[in-house]
Specification:
single chain, alpha+beta, two-stranded antiparallel sheet, 2 helices, globular
């Protein structure tokens, strides 16, 4: 686990979140997601269940749910 980059952990969280919802809906024992990491870009293809919005990582990545306001130092 020591050689994993932050983007690798993000991919793991995305695959887990989407996979759990897919398996719950269809009762299967396998879920395959194909991803490519190039620099800081993450591109994935996977079967969808229609429940992707229930995955926090998916919503943050696809719907832009992250915001950051930088405060000035005093």
């Amino acid at each position: 686990m020591g050689d994993l980059r932050p983007i690798d952990f993000l991919l793991i969280a995305l695959a887990y979140g989407l996979g759990v919802r897919y398996l719950d809906k269809y009762g299967l024992s396998e879920y395959v997601i194909s991803c490519e990491i190039e620099n800081n870009n993450l591109r994935c293809t996977s079967p969808c269940s229609g429940n992707e919005d229930r995955c926090l990582v998916y919503r943050l990545l696809v719907k832009g749910g992250i915001s950051l306001k930088c405060l000035s130092r005093s």
